[in-house]
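Section: Multi-chain targets

For targets with more than one molecule, the full set of components is provided together so that the structure can be written out for the assembly as a whole rather than chain by chain. Components appear in the order listed by the source. The example entry contains two components.
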Amino acid sequence: MKFTLNGAEHSIEADGDMPLLWALRDVVGLTGTKFGCGVALCGACTVHVDGAPVRSCQTTVADVEGKSVTTIEGVAGSGEVGQAVVAAWRKLDVVQCGYCQSGQIMSAVGLLSENRKPTDDDIDAAMDGNVCRCATYQRIRAAIHDAAANLA
Amino acid sequence: MHLIKPDHYRKMLAGQLAGQSAGSGEPVAPSRRGFLQGVAAIGGALVIGLHLETGKAFAAAAKDGPMPNAFVRIAPDSTVTVLIKHLDMGQGVTTGLATIVAEELDADWSQMRAAFAPADALLYNNLAFGPVQGTGGSTSVANSWEQLRKAGAAARHMLVAAAAEKWGVPASSITIDKGRLASGSHSGSFGEFAEAAAKLPVPTEVTLKDPKDFRLIGTRLPRLDSADKTDGKAIYALDIRRPGMLTAVLRRPDRFGATLKSFDATAAKKVPGVVEVVAVPNGIAVLATNTWAAIQGREALADIVWDEANAEMRSTPELMTAYKQLATTPGTSAAKRGDAAKGLSGAAKVIEAEFEFPYLAHAPMEPLNCVIEKTGDGVTIWTGSQFQTIEQAVTAGIMGIKLEQVKIETLWAGGSFGRRANPPADYVAEAATILKAIDGRAPVHLVWTREDDIKGGYYRPMFYHKVRAGVTADGKIAGWEQQIVGQSFIVGTPFEAFIVKNGVDGTSVEGASDTNYDIGNFAVDLHTVPSKVPTLWWRSVGHTHTAQAVEVMIDELAHAAGRDPVEFRMELLKDKPRHAAVLKLLAEKANWGPKAGQGKGRGLALHESFDTVVGSVIDVSVVDGQIKVDKVICAVDCGIAINPDVIAAQIEGGVGFGLGAALHDEITLDKGLVEQSNFDGFIPLRMSEMPKVEVHILPSANAPTGIGEPGVPGVAPALSNAIFDATGQRLRSLPFKLEDFKA
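Its structure, encoded as tokens over all components, is:
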């Protein structure tokens, strides 16, 4: 099974039905993408497939054959949006336990890639699928606005 | 958890930690073994540490080597690493504890690092817990405050002494600014003197800074964990990979208290990747080469028969009915002053109110998991460990080895909210039983799925409060009678003998029986009920329910008396200047005054927990018949604010966590079966529901107090009181059943 992972060609031996989440974590060994619920209710496993955010727990290895997958490990190097989002997260000290933040960042990069000046309602719509039990939402919102300002 | 005083732990451990020389209640002298381990770990770098409470013990041990209780490492490249004896589950203690050391050391923040200390109760015990390494009760900064100030000051003293010797100048002439030592024309870095300083004697007495000279404490320093938690590098237990490791998922009974009778693993073993299926005390473990295969293997288990003779078969409405019945009878007295019944008989107005609270899951974002591996003559565990010493003791018991043969690598924890601080060390124990069942052939990574977590128990217990209180004609509280009914997570554990006093589990009544309000005729009774449902503390413990009952009732009484809720409370706090100061600041910052207008409401709560006082004002709007939480304003007195931004983050997060409980969170049972299984049934707060949170910290010269939990208790009552203000409806039970409101 071949696909592009964080800009490099990748080939893995895995059942095509295996969720991309487990293939990334257990087969490839990239553990930045997190398991939170397994049923696309929390967003912790969010990655980009051909630039669009998807829940990797509901995306199979077969789904991404020949496609380009970006994970948290590669997103800051994937372009100015990824860089701006990660920088804003650090500047505002968004993280607490940090476990959901890979997915939060991937969703935020997805939002800002489509919409460079999101309103609070846009942020609600794009980020409501990403759960943070530490409730860092206020800072996530602020960091998205901050990244947007830096990208303008 | 804060009711567990040091003495409890000392006595408990005397029984629990057989084979360990702790438990006498006396400070434990650092062992040579611990010292050697410390040295082996740090190579040639300067290690500074102190056994601060026991200067004599330290001096005696000093002849074995310079520094037996290491908190500070200074490397040749001048980086300063603080060994963190606590778990960082998001509350930011790595940053806070490193700041305390950096301050006394006059280090530059950019040279500071943090590393989790190894599990070693002799070196890294929580001073609030006795000889136990563990995190909880919002004690991390409070118990480390003096210890780390002294460790930092000692390191500074030794660096200065080394520089004085090399430069041939008096130590008193040397200054340190942002990690640079200087005297006259001399100047040098920490790294230049690390090795020489390490050879000097550790001072037994050090002078601490005058707080007015603090340069780092009280400022917004960036978190030490932000970088690694934003690029996928931070390692949680779920990310541990060991050679030959097998991932295990466990099929547990459907009902609490059931045990395994029989099962058929034929199909499970045919799933590609599944390596073994073994029965263990908590169910059936499926081990596979990857997580996906293990989950599929578990689904393929067939013909599972459970023995449910001793299982919990009741439904939660049935339990609540029984609780209510109990509340009509006298309970065990938790507090009694004056004569509540007599006071109420003379009251002008009497209010009777019932408050129901559900079971709650903690649902940390990182599903529970740990890795355990046979290493040398013992085992090594990788986990976000919150009770290291207890996990060591429990694992040692299962494996038939000594506590010190259990090594724990503490990792970042993806949340806890109390779940990882578990007296039976449940998931670590499960992993150990699986490792034992396969004779230690491979490292075992036990992984809980989210369904396992939501259905897995160790919930905040259900509670029921019934309060009868009244006001006199002149607007004073005439009397207060409160019945509290709920399950105890202390009764039946080794903690029972030390925490349950006169039949009252303090964790069930804290925040109510010890209210700070001056109520003359006052009585609180507790009924403790048994159940097979495992329960546990949940961020802010008893305060999760007592604050709601007390603060809503106080609001009701203020309204009954026709008095302003701030002024009413202020009068009841006339002998509590600290609480009154928080309330005063809160009222100022919130611009407390007349009702905001049609369709708007604001409510107030003031509550002390973990020695910290938090006041909360919540503004709501009624929009299309629905409640919208617009803004939350908090005032906090948590002593000296080490890092105001981390404190603000804890309050912001506590507000979100409390709002989730107020609006959504609920675990229910139907004939013993948990009805929720994932985030569709156990509903977390999401971005669109998060209000703006504003945090105001009172200046203080007092030692720091808790901050991880105190943001939670006031949220539900402040919201309840705001909804009343907006709609005239009293929502007392959690989660609030928000129906259509008319503004």
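Chain B touches chain A through 64 residues (CB under 8 Å).
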